[in-house]
Amino acid sequence: VLANYKDNIITSLNCNFIPEPFCFKDDCIMPLRDGRFGLVDCFQWPQLHTERYIWSACIPQQVAYRDDPIWSILWWNMSRSPDEFVLERGSAFEVRRVHKSKFQQLEKVHRCLDECAQKWLKENPEYKGPLKLQEWVQCCSWALICLERLAFTFRDTVLVVTLFQCLALNVFSMLEWETTPITAPSSDFHLVINHWMGTFTTDFEVCQCLFDARVQVWLIRKESSIPSDMNVHKRIKVTPPPPQIS
User: What is the pLDDT of residues 33-78, one digit of tens each?
Assistant: First the structure.
């Protein structure tokens, strides 16, 4: 499929849609009310590929885990759930903690990720790649300890909860990147792993590698670089993000 966007052409060989890209200009990164970063947040919308965070294309989409008893908490928006914020007794300040039931859900996520990570590390003791899995899991632990031991204002609690969620999603994505079996296609048609977020790229070789790995990938090029005889299955419009992350 192919879409025109401003003065660029965006194509994809393994998707029937093209998300609207938000990677053409520098943005001031700051957390919004929900603790996330809006349209330039890789946990909410596809971003431009970078080798430093090669696993980010495997970030799971919320729709795939919306009803999952463990992983659904990773998209819990605490800013919309003030009732889950419990007042700290005996404090002279307006500080509170995450409700016990929610904390236990976050704790369960950490426990599952830690078990999976330790298993993978044990099976791959000689790994020297870019994934610092143990360090990321440790950061998850620190965020969880803060939520368990410290009381915060509501706004700060939202930020710490979101930090834990993002760290956990990173670990989840690393494990997906390293452990998902990629089978060779039986024909010219490649199946895509559509519960992954996917990514944009401007590099044809990177696009080919991600395509072979069954990652949803969208190649951005200038219109002048498109060959006149390119076979286009369908011209479409870019898909805008849902209002809640705008």
Answer: 888 888 889 999 999 999 999 999 999 999 999 999 999 999 999 8
Q: What is the pLDDT of residue 128?
A: 86
Transcribe the chain into DSSP letters: -EEEETTEEEE-SS-S--BPP--SS-------TTSS-GGG-TTTS--B--GGGGGGGGPBPHHHHTT-TTGGGGG--GGG-GGGEEE-TT-SSS-EEE-HHHHHHHHHHHHHHHHHHHHHHHH-TT--SS--HHHHHHHHHHHHHHHHH--B-HHHHHHHHHHHHHHHHHHHHHHHHHHS--PPPSSSPPP--TTB--EEES-HHHHHHHHHTT--EEEEEEGGGS-TT---S-B-PPBPPPGGG-
* Residue 84 Ramachandran class (φ > 0 left, ψ -120 to 50 alpha, else beta): alpha
45 Cβ partners below 8 Å, 6+ apart?
A: 19, 22, 39, 197, 241, 245
Q: Which two tokens stand for residue 120?
A: 């993978």
> Do 197 and 60 form a contact (C-beta atoms < 8 A)?
yes
Find residue 217's DSSP bridge partners. 199
Amino acid at 122: K
Measured CA distances, 94 to 47, 56, 147 (Å): 37, 37, 16
Evaluate if pTM is beyond 0.70. Answer: yes
